[in-house]
Amino acid sequence: MRARSRLVAFSLIFSLLATVDPAAAASATIRDGDTIQLGDVVFRLDGIDAPELDQLCIDDHADSWSCGVEARDQLVKLIGGRSIRCDDLGADKTRKNRRIGVCTFEGDTVSLNQQIARAGYAVSAEPAAKVHVKDDVATAKDGARGIWKGCFVAPSEFRSDKKDGPLLGAACRADRDREIRAVLFPDSPTMPPNCSIKAKFAVRARLTGNVGVYHLRGCPSYPALDNPDRWFCSEDDARAAGFRRAFNCRAPKSK
Q1: Which of 2, 83, 118, 151 qualifies as a cystine partner to 169, CB 3.0-4.6 A?
Q2: Looking at residue 152, what DSSP letter applies?
Q3: Average pLDDT, the chain
Q4: How far is the C-alpha of 117 from the C-alpha of 124, rounded, in Å?
Q5: Cβ atoms 86, 23 nearer than 8 A
Q6: Close Cβ partners of 140 (under 8 Å, ≥ 6 residues apart)
């Protein structure tokens, strides 16, 4: 009987441990406006697409601003150190080692995915696995919140360097189309904080199935590249965007 009691107790403890969600207990690291890392797991928020960290927008005063950095900072403010959990919806087909997630605060019924969309710092990304934010985005657009108060291009258009795509936002002006696009796609974009990887679109990269080449600090080609098209914070981000490492760059030494 005593052995049976120990077995029952052990089974109960094992059952309780198995129900602990490690993603819910881990501290959150905000990668960008739609990407959260919990422990060792990186989640892209399902149903939304936020500006890239190196993406520029135009505000309601016709000035350029780092809307990608602002979107990330807004996500940080929304979380505010509160405990969150992310439900894993499966692998992200567009980026290796990343999962699709629906993230919520403890005790909250509205997902973080929806909240960042309602704040005006993301567009709808369809098809979505579970979360559809079209109504939330429409509310932000009607209220000219976040990036909608100014003028911008969809993050997907920015990633693909599609300079003739539609302009979005309340401050877009047809009579200033050329000037606006020059701001949104600058010849020499400013490096976001702690994102030092330079990338350049290149036709020759298409031979390897890529859209361009990225250069790391320490690469012989790095100092000479004065006008990169993109900046990235990690090699994973650069590769996910379709860029390959420059052939004159050696792989970083493993620690």
Answers
A1: 151
A2: B
A3: 87
A4: 8
A5: yes
A6: 117, 118, 119, 120, 146, 148
Q: What is the C-alpha to C-alpha distance for residues 189 and 245, in angstroms, rounded to an integer?
A: 20
CB contact at 8 A, 130 and 102:
yes
The amino acid at residue 96 is K
Q: At residue 131, what are phi and psi to the nearest 5 degrees?
A: -95, 125
Residues 147-178 as b or e (16 or more Cβ within 10 Å = b): bbbbbbbbbebbbeeeeeeebbbebbeeebee
Q: Which two tokens stand for residue 109?
A: 């019924």
CB under 8 Å to 113, separation ≥6 — which residues?
45, 46, 47, 48, 102, 103, 131, 133
Omega before 127 within 30 of 0, i.e. cis: yes
Measured over all CA atoms, what is the biggest interatomic distance in the chain, rounded to whole angstroms? 86
* Surface-to-core class of residue 203, CB atoms within 10 Å of its CB (0-12 exposed, 13-18 middle, 19+ buried): exposed
Q: Which residue has the tokens 């990304």?
A: 125
Q: Positive or negative CA dihedral for 121, 210, 88, 124?
A: positive
Contact call for residues 187 and 217 (beta carbons, < 8 A): no
- Whole-angstrom distance, CA of residue 145 vs CA of residue 245: 37
75 is written with which tokens? Answer: 């996500």
Residue 251's pLDDT band, with cuts at 50, 70 and 90, is low
C-alpha span between 198 and 235 (Å, rounded): 10
| Amino acid identity, position 115 | Q
